[in-house]
Amino acid sequence: MAEESPKYLSYPFVLNTHFSKFRGKPVSFVGKVHSNSGAKLQLKNKNEDIITVESFNGDTSVEGFVEIRGIVKSNDSIEFKDFTQFNKEFNIDQFEEMVQFYQSNHSGLCF
Question: Which residues make beta-bridge pairs with 51?
Answer without folding.
Answer: 43
